[in-house]
């Protein structure tokens, strides 16, 4: 099954060059970004990440134009490979052992937004190689519905609207493939 790759990138504004480097690398994997949000500032994220990443922290959401395999066992680019590649890239762009960018890959399919993570906790499904999958949204009633564990920034209407646009683009790409 093909799915649409997405990224949430949290970055320190002092390291914008590292953000640009990360974006170029991600494009090598998933093609150009066909959808992108404006830059957001979510102050609550600094409570968790500032000790590692510093301040000010900004976030953008993007979707890659190339569809990827959902199957974590696929030889092609899949959610596990994308998370592992993203983690390697974060390390490469670190400064004095601290991340300057935090890349959270995920994907949209017809009914969900999933995020990949290397942190284990309840409700996350193990995919292999230290990577877990967490559902952030479920699509029904013509909208994405958050779940009780959905991150605060993903609950914002403008963020949900972005992922609804990603879903529309994904469905259009599937129709074109037929």
Account of the 3D structure:
This protein is an alpha+beta fold and 178 residues long. The chain has a single domain (2-177), classed as Alpha-Beta Plaits (2-Layer Sandwich). The protein has helices at 16-30, 43-53, 79-92, 157-177, and strands at residues 2-12, 33-36, 57-64, 68-69, 101-108, 112-117, 125-128, 131-140, 143-146. The model has no long low-confidence stretch (mean pLDDT 96).
Keywords, separated by commas or semicolons:
Alpha-Beta Plaits; alpha+beta; single chain; 178 residues; nine-stranded antiparallel β-sheet
Brief overview:
The chain has a single domain (2-177), classed as Alpha-Beta Plaits.
Number of helices: 4
**Poorly predicted parts:** none
CATH class: Alpha Beta
User: What is the percent of helical residues?
Assistant: 25-40%
**Shape category:** globular
Radius of gyration: 15 Å
CATH topology: Alpha-Beta Plaits
Secondary-structure element order, as H and E? EHEHEEHEEEEEH
Give me the secondary-structure topology.
Blueprint: E1 2-12, H1 16-30, E2 33-36, H2 43-53, E3 57-64, E4 68-69, H3 79-92, E5 101-108, E6 112-117, E7 125-128, E8 131-140, E9 143-146, H4 157-177
Antiparallel strand pairs: 1-3, 1-4, 1-5, 2-3, 5-6, 6-8, 7-8, 8-9
Helix pairs in contact: 1-3
């Amino acid at each position: 099954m093909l799915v649409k790759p997405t990224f949430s990138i949290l970055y320190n504004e002092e390291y914008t060059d590292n953000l640009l480097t990360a974006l170029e690398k991600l494009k090598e994997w998933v093609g150009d970004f066909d959808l992108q949000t404006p830059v957001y500032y979510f102050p609550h994220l600094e409570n968790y990440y500032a000790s590692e990443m510093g301040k000010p922290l900004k976030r953008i959401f993007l979707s890659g134009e190339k569809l990827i395999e959902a199957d974590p066992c696929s030889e092609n680019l899949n959610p596990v490979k994308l998370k592992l590649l993203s983690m390697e890239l974060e390390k490469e762009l670190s400064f004095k052992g601290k991340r300057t960018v935090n890349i959270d890959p995920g994907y949209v399919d017809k009914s969900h937004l999933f995020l990949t993570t290397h942190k284990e906790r309840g409700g996350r499904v193990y995919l292999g190689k230290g990577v877990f999958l967490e559902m952030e949204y479920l699509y029904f009633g013509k909208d994405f519905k958050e779940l009780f564990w959905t991150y605060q920034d993903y609950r914002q209407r403008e963020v949900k609207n972005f992922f609804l646009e990603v879903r529309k683009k994904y469905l259009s790409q599937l129709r074109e493939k037929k």
